[in-house]
Write a structure and sequence with these properties.
single chain; about 475 residues; alpha+beta; Porin; 2 domains; 14-stranded antiparallel β-barrel; two-stranded antiparallel sheet; 22 strands; elongated
């Protein structure tokens, strides 16, 4: 089994997609158009506008939402390229025949040594360094993510509003390569060895690649969340109500990173080694509290809203990667850079319209600033979509959404989905951009594939 293919297979285990679900309201412009983004490790729903609950004595709405998917960088065939680089760096002793140099330089040892140095740097070192450069750009990565949450909303007489309690877990794991370019050969390195080879019975030069610290970095973030929100109408402006909401979040996060030099991989022991390192040494647990606030104006055919996520900007930190196995290059510093993840404060604006019969909805959201997820990916979303909600529960509701991450990966998505019996919703989100994948031990696929693919299932029941 190829080393990196095994690493990818192990690292993606138990990961899916971190898409946050929303309730789809049939009384106001469809909330699923306003508050869903393809990738998120935290709740992005406006706390001012939970799912509407019918009036009465005691009413509850219970939901379950699960999703899973992946995202790949722009570099084609990322996994196999790392396997190829690993094979190149661990190839061992190489041999270069000197016979062709005799035709050009005779037995001039210094001239042959200079030519050998130039050829090795051009045809070996430069070629390998181009592989390293390609694989260590920010557009070279493989990410898997997943989420599961269970919201419960309830309203009782005298409360004046709606309580929203939810518990969930989201996870994300990615694989990067962190590069250490090979140092070029010099005349000092090879002159004496070339001279000795010239005088041998079979003139050839045995050589090794210079020491190299290029490493694979696996990062994992698992975030468990408990949330309690409350929203209520504050005033009636005639055309519509102004509703305000607040949500308190308790986060418990496990932040893990594991790194290994490509030249140090032991193929047969890799899966056991990764699991031991992941579970025993590199996990860092931390807890924090966060607050979200929101406001919305809701009219019969219109909705406008704004929310500020993570008002207090909680922070989480990865444990440092062990540096003793590296040879003194800059790689350890790169592996341990950006160890702190801050839940950055973010403004989100939303708006929606629906038809007079409330069967057709349009909606859009836009983020006011850029934030990073725990793995260092930048996000700033723009989303727009339309939905059809038929009057009869036996007809499926349909929706279509467009999402664009305007920073970072700049990936664009299309979401298509349907709802059955006003209770069961299934959505598929596919990136408009593709990347080439070649079959390997981790992926049984060959050809062009979407850079990101996400599936989402939501079930909700009203009591």
């Amino acid at each position: 089994m190829k080393t990196t293919s095994l690493l990818i297979a192990v690292s993606i285990c138990a990961s899916g997609c971190a898409t946050q679900g929303v309730f789809s309201s049939h009384r106001t412009p469809d909330e699923s158009l306003l508050a869903t983004t393809p990738v998120a490790l935290i709740d992005l729903r406006n706390p001012a506008t939970p799912r509407q609950i019918p009036s009465g004595d005691h009413h509850y709405r219970i939901s379950m939402h699960a999703s899973g998917g992946y995202e790949l960088g722009e570099v084609a065939d990322f996994i196999n390229r790392i396997d190829d680089l690993e094979a190149e760096l661990t190839r061992g002793t190489r041999n270069l025949s000197l016979n062709s140099y005799f035709d050009q330089f005779g037995t001039d040892g210094l001239a042959i040594a200079n030519a050998v140095v130039a050829d090795l740097n051009t045809h070996i070192i430069d070629v390998v360094n181009r592989q390293i450069d390609l694989l260590t750009t920010r557009s070279s990565y493989a990410t898997a993510f997943g989420s599961l949450d269970a919201p419960v909303q309830f309203a009782q007489p005298g409360m004046g509003g709606v309580f929203d309690f939810r518990t969930g877990v989201t996870s994300a794991r990615d694989v990067w390569a962190v590069g250490d370019p090979l140092q070029e050969y010099t005349l000092v390195d090879l002159e004496q060895r070339v001279t000795d080879a010239i005088n041998s019975a079979e003139p050839s030069l045995d050589y090794l690649l210079p020491e190299n610290d290029t490493a694979v970095l696996v990062r994992t973030a698992i975030v468990n969340t408990l949330s309690l929100g409350y929203s209520r109408p504050m005033m009636d402006l005639g055309l519509g109500q102004v509703i305000v909401g607040v949500r308190g979040n308790y986060y418990k996060a496990e932040m893990t990173r594991y790194a290994k030099r490509l030249t140090d991989f032991v193929r047969e022991e890799l899966s056991i080694e990764y699991q031991n390192e992941y579970s025993d040494d590199n996990g860092h647990f931390a807890s924090a509290f966060g607050t979200d606030v929101g406001i919305a104006w809701i009219a019969p055919q219109m909705r406008l809203g704004a929310m500020i996520n993570n008002v207090n900007e909680s922070k989480f930190t990865y444990r440092r990667v062990e540096e003793t196995e590296f040879s003194g290059s800059a790689v350890p510093n790169l592996l341990n850079a950006n160890r702190t993840w801050k839940l950055q404060r973010q403004l989100r604006l939303e708006g929606g319209l629906n038809s007079l019969d409330r069967q057709w909805s349009l909606g859009t959201t836009v983020d006011g600033n850029t934030v990073e997820d725990p793995l260092g990916h930048e996000y700033r979303w723009f989303s727009a979509g339309a939905a059809y909600s038929p009057r009869g529960s036996w007809l499926p509701g349909l929706r279509l959404r467009y999402h664009a991450n305007t920073v970072g990966s700049e990936t664009r998505y299309i979401t298509t989905g349907f709802t059955l019996f006003n209770s069961v919703s299934l959505d598929m989100t596919r990136s408009l951009d593709s990347v080439y994948i070649e079959e390997n031990d981790a992926v049984s696929y060959h050809g062009s594939a979407p850079r990101s693919l996400i599936y989402s299932l939501r079930i909700e029941l009203g009591i």
